[in-house]
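Appendix C. Worked example: Gamma-glutamyl-gamma-aminobutyrate hydrolase
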Amino acid sequence: MTASLPLIGVTPDHESGGPGQYSAFPWYALRANYMGAVVKAGGLPVALPHVPCLAEEMVARLDGLIVTGGAFDIDPALYGEARDERTPLLKPGRTEAELKLIGAARARGIPVFGICGGMQLLAAVLGGTLYQDIAAAVPGALPHEQPNPRDEAGHIISIEPGTILAGIVGRSSMAVNSSHHQAVCDPGRAVVSARAEDGVIEAIEDPDAAFCLGVQWHPEFSIDRGDGALFAAFVAAARRVGA
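Step 2, the predicted output written as structure tokens:
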């Protein structure tokens, strides 16, 4: 590998382990297509352990940070709400580590790309709030836990003109997949850059950062040509950090 490849940190999920799982002991999990999308875009990906006390040390060596999704929820305490039955599963160790990584990345000014749950955590960092359950909060909502396979589109999003996202994909709409039951309610300091047909927020960005973007779908599946453009723009921004 050449030194010119920007180093991209990617956060994995954490599983507790047990009978019938990959390991009886705790282990990290990360779909290969996250790493593949970074490689295809010209980056050098590395998985980051959940060690909050080393977040600054890790970020000091990175050119960009991707915060991935997972089958768990963001703690409502982060946006000032009580947890109820609509938020069944938390992973506090992972969330603590990702909060530290995001904080260190933003302080250092390197690109941050939040995907699905990563976008929701980024919204909380930027002072926003979440719907703890879309079906309960948004009348007539689309099935954001799409019934068809995740490597197929679930719905269309409309992209806000003049946003960073619009500039990256060069179009006013995209076909995206959908795998979430929570969503951004109030974006806080973030700018909303895309919405689903039912009005649910699908992308946000930090107007004060060169590249700090969150998307609710999973662009690592490369369903729409805009997905590849997102990873290419992110890696290009990371390359400028290391230049």
